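User: Hi! I'm a student and our assignment asks us to look at how structure tokens line up with a sequence. Could you show me two examples?

Assistant: Happy to help. In each example below, the sequence comes first and the structure tokens follow. Example one:
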Amino acid sequence: MTLPDAVIRPASPADLKDVAEIYTHYVLETVITFDQTPPGHTDWRRRLDELAGRGLPFLVAELNGDVAGYAYAGPWRPKPAYRHTVEDSIYLAPGMTGRGLGGALLGALLPRCAEAGMRQVIAVIADGGSPASTALHERFGFAHAGRLAGVGYKQGRWVDTVLMQRALTTGQDG
């Protein structure tokens, strides 16, 4: 269920401080991202500009005037043949999980990916012990595509990743 007063909108440079703070929490406190050093504001600005330049979505969920989460779709791999496939990333501010914001963000992200000419969306989910991200993606039609065992080492343990995939179109054109 989405919050009635949550606004999902394109991210702006003014949102990047909040985006960085949200992500920093996950970098430092969890294994759900394999980054070990939080990116700075300049890194986030570069990512926002790069995604905008590619026509890919970067969204924020705003709740009562505050950024409560964000989602974006970035290139899956750098090789040209992958140009119609993106990887989604969704992060919510601490204390904002379980309120429907992840679903609101993913629900807004997918059609924007299709509008950008993307054909496939990949989710790479670190298996940190909570099924929430997997369940969210299943609700939006993602299928399990595989598991990579022990591919990340963080906080003193080996972490698996779950790969999920969703087709946006079935077109054959490249």
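Example two works the same way, sequence first and then tokens:
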Amino acid sequence: MRNPLQEQLLKAGLVKKSKLAEVAREQAKQRHGKAPPAPSAEQAEAERVRQEKAERDRALAAERNAQARLHEQRAQARQIVEQNKLKLVGEIAYGFTDEGVIKNVLVDETVRRQLASGALVVVRHDQGYAVIPRAAADKVYAREAAMVVLDHGKPGDPGSDGADDDYYSQFKVPDDLVW
């Protein structure tokens, strides 16, 4: 059923019958259509709780993934050390400090020279220490730098700027000094 204004516009020829029918259909849809009900307080609270739980779950998953990556990198570093460690045979005790404690590794003369030059590196392995080549040490540095105990190939401590060396260079050490 049309309203009187629509009938008058149709009789006057200002609107077409198809346009009038289309408008009537839209109005009927609006009157009879079901709008989504407004969420109640319980529903809003449930949605908020669900979103908080989802965020917590994402954070836990990210933490688990980070721990898994860390564990994987440690395992890769241990595998690199295991594959590249040198057999240590010798009677020369090569001393170094690990966390403030002086430790020794028995090496021969060639290994001692290579350790001093930085071609070989001492790393923690299982309950002891292992000596590995520079290329393997670089891979270990990339995965877990804390495993490397002694590396003369890397620059020294950032605190040692050479000022002490300059000061002590003015004092000459006698050639016949024996320790």
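Here is something you could point out in your write-up. The helical segments are 4-12, 17-32, 41-84, 109-117, 134-143, 163-168.
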